[in-house]
Amino acid sequence: MNATTIINARAKTMDGAGGTATSIRIGFGRILEVDSEPAPGDTVIDARGRTIIPGFNDAHAHSVWFGQTLREINLGGARTRADVLQALREERPGEWVVASGFNPNLLTDGPLPIADLDHATAGKPLLIKHNSGHAYTVNSEALRRAGIDPANPPHIEGGEVVVDDTGNATGLLDENAMRPINDVLQPESEHNITDALDRAGRHYLSEGITSVTDAGVAGGWIGHSPQEFGFYQRARETGKLHVRTQAMITLDALHGIDGHEDDPEVHGLDAGIRTGLGDDLLQIGPVKIFTDGSLLGKTAAMTEDYACCCHAGYFQGDTDTMRSRALAAAAGGWSLALHAIGDRAVDFALDVISEAVDKHGPRTIPHRIEHGGVVRNDQIERMAKAGVVLVPQPRFIAEFGDAMAEAIGAERAALSYPGKRLLERGVVLPGSSDRPVATGTPLAVVQSFVERTTASGKSYGPQDRITADEALYAYTAGSAAATGWAGKKGQIAPGQLADLVVLGADPAEVPASQIGDIPVEATVLGGQLVHGSF
């Protein structure tokens, strides 16, 4: 048998007990043995004492969206209106001007006037994607192409075409108001989607990411084409799917499916395709359900008014309809993944999941709540009892924490994007980024798990800080458990997938402020070196 043995390693096995190993033997894409001597004929690789961990697993990201940002105008560094307008004036091919990475909260001189956007784009339609993922900024031509009269915009349920004091559109579209723009630009082509996956996957490997959950494809405002999962398959067939991927199909893409009169009413995909179909490279995950918005946009559904505003946010649709459709999906065998940021939305998500479990039992791929921008302790207790996974994004604290604290106030900021509180109650804690909403570099996210400080240096929910080793466990074994792969990947143990990362230092042995700077020196997927070198 042709096998490879890595020797002289400082491997963190992620066994949950601080286990380590000095050698790893690999064959047939899996880990065969740890702490064993090389067998005759083995290829031997000397790790030279470097730290090795399982491959990073981002349990909530957006691969196609991220890949597209790598070829769009990048507004991530914009701090003034002039910065934005200058970037938009640069000549770009294509019928539309498309920019991404925009955070309007960082502009020091106020919002962008739509007249300035019209002038900068010289008659071309403009789409600026906010990094929150819950808003667009567009110009007048884009509105007109979407069938919206800038002087008399419509009311849209679950969203808002924001207007000025005269009733004219400002160009800001919140939540479901983004859909008319998407309807013009979609469905996107196979080439555009597979190219984005190719770009994203290569980037992932450079950061040690070997598994990703794409949190919403094929429908809704987050999807790119009704054929999107098929394009993932095409990317796999053409060598453009570089990491293990679990794709969440959006609730919008599911529909009623006829069955026997004795069977319950179900929603799903034709032929009864549902959560779990696939293999270790490409798999259908839970159904993605958007219940509310974001803290940055003050559109997340809260139990009390925002600290900055006289409203408590809103749901993205009628809750009775969302509930019935979610339960119909659960009846069809789907695991549920509910986007819920405000604590009112978390209550709703827990109610729906609890009802689904009562009626249909638990799932091998767990039910999940995505984000958890405000999560009370009583809600965490409910998660623990129901076996619900919460998928928080600690990097939001570093990048948006100051604005979030201003929006919700100090008391609720202390309940925001929990970490330690989940571990203390036995709730699975995965690692995730929501990339490209925030920086997706895993070691930067690990640093945020540990520090929980905002860009201005303020402490944000310090009781939820975790150690570097706990954060590494979250990003490996924790994410595997959250996606139904516990015991199959995410640990350095015999029988598990041979996905590994070689680091330039041990995150537990450097100052927390330096964790994000540790280099990824090599990435191994299925026993094959796919980035860097030993």
Content-based structural category = alpha/beta
- At the third CATH level, what is the topology name of the largest domain? TIM Barrel
Major β-sheet profile: 7 strands, parallel
Q: What is the oligomer described by this structure?
A: single chain
Number of domains: 3
Q: So, the CATH homologous superfamily of the largest domain?
A: Metal-dependent hydrolases
Annotation field: number of helices: 14
Task: Describe this structure as you would to a colleague.
- By secondary structure, the protein is of the alpha/beta class.
- It folds into 3 domains: 4-49 and 495-532, Roll (Urease, subunit C, domain 1), CATH 2.30.40; 74-185, Diaminopimelate Epimerase, Chain A, domain 1, CATH 3.10.310.70; 286-466, Metal-dependent hydrolases (TIM Barrel, Alpha-Beta Barrel).
- Helices cover 29% and strands 22% of the residues.
- The chain contains 14 helices and 25 strands.
- The strands form 5 sheets. It has a 7-stranded parallel sheet with strand order 8-15-16-19-20-21-22. Strands 3-2-7-23-24-25 form a 6-stranded mixed sheet, with helices on one face. The chain has a 6-stranded mixed sheet with strand order 9-10-11-12-14-13.
- The mean pLDDT is 95.
